[in-house]
């Protein structure tokens, strides 16, 4: 994806959503046409622009402290199910159509966070739904009276998406959101237990939305009843994925990329390929 395309996609998405909202909010007491335009055309648009800019640029080990455009270095990640079927992540629409409640499991460094950024941006590009990224680790800092639902609505409020609670509630009921719940493994044990129950309660209340949860393995998140568990697929040398990844990272440094790939292909030490 080119950067100029990314910059223009928010306007296209909000225009589409305004049209769809007329049907969702038709004859809904307490909501005017001007409030819809304020909520979507201003508040939501500002939120999407801010987060599109935030998630479309990342720092990498190779580039130091200089942020780079995500799609200049992003190599398409794939997922794999328990039967070995490989799942594409190119389209959030196709992914959530098949897996409405999805857990993405992967070790540290497997690319979960980068994948979530891609899926967040792809949600806007495909005009699929309103993406909300929830960093679960912050739930550790709240007292026992604070709930996951409160936290999610606080995120909406901090981004002025709760300026009209009637619109927010109707959007939640009609499944206009995709929630990215990132970092379940970063919750402490007590908070994990409570969060699982509250997540199930939230989904039961707002069943039509899509939910994507990320975690490292061995956190017992695999046992969430509604969620399908998919793992991050490792890159393969045989089908050219490692080569493609190296060339993507090194950009215009083709000579260096060729040397790196040759070293990996000819190297007898297994950890080089793994790294």
Automatic annotation (TrEMBL):
Query: Cross-referenced InterPro entries, in alphabetical order?
Result: NACHT_NTPase, P-loop_NTPase
Domain (NACHT) ranges:
100-217
Q: What is this protein called?
A: NACHT domain-containing protein
């Amino acid at each position: 994806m080119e950067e100029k395309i990314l910059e223009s996609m928010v306007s296209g998405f909000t225009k589409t959503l305004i049209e769809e909202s007329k049907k969702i909010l038709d004859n809904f007491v307490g909501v005017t046409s001007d409030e819809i335009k304020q909520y979507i055309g201003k508040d939501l648009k500002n939120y999407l622009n801010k987060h599109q800019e935030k998630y479309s640029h990342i720092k990498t080990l190779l580039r130091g402290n200089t942020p780079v455009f995500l799609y200049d270095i992003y190599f398409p990640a794939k997922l794999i199910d328990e039967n070995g079927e490989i799942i594409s992540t190119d389209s959030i629409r196709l992914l959530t159509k098949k897996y409405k409640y999805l857990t993405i499991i992967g070790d540290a460094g497997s690319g979960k966070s980068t994948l979530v950024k891609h899926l967040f941006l792809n949600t806007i590009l495909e005009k699929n739904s309103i993406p909300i990224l929830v960093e679960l680790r912050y739930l550790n800092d709240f007292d026992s009276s604070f709930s996951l639902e409160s936290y999610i609505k606080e995120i909406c409020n901090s981004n002025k998406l709760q300026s009209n609670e009637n619109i927010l509630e109707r959007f939640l009921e009609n499944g206009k959101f995709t929630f990215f719940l990132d970092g379940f493994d970063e919750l402490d044990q007590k908070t994990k237990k409570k969060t699982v129950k509250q997540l199930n309660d939230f989904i039961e209340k707002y069943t039509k939305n899509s939910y994507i949860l990320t975690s490292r393995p061995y956190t017992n998140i695999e046992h969430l009843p509604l969620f399908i568990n998919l793992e991050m697929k490792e890159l393969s040398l045989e089908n050219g994925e490692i080569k493609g990844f190296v060339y993507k990272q090194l950009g215009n440094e083709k000579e260096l990329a060729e040397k790196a790939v040759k070293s990996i292909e000819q190297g007898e030490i297994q950890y080089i390929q793994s790294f």
